[in-house]
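WARN no homologs supplied; continuing
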Amino acid sequence: MFTKVKFITDEISNFSGSVPGDLEDFKGVDDLEELPEEVVTHLRLLMDVLRHYRSGPLPKTVKMLPHLPAWEGLLGLLKPLEWTVHAYPRIVKIFASKGHEPALQLGAVSILN
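OK structure emitted
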């Protein structure tokens, strides 16, 4: 059974290549419209959640961001400057607790600045 996170991860892998580390094409994506329609729909819903977030659990996709090979590009597409102030501490906590070193650096540089 496919979960949404598995589906999105598979779609991103299909879009960017078969090798998980070969995501240069995806990292260069600046527009959502260049992605598959299912991924665009899910990312737009996720952006809407982060724009209006106040409290409660975050979607599982947010928790998976530090583990995805193309997390830098995805984070940029989610437009962090439009999130509510309540979303930032939760996202930073996710990156700090589950992220690897580059994810921690991005969390500190992109989200906190």
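Residues 55-113 form one domain.
OK
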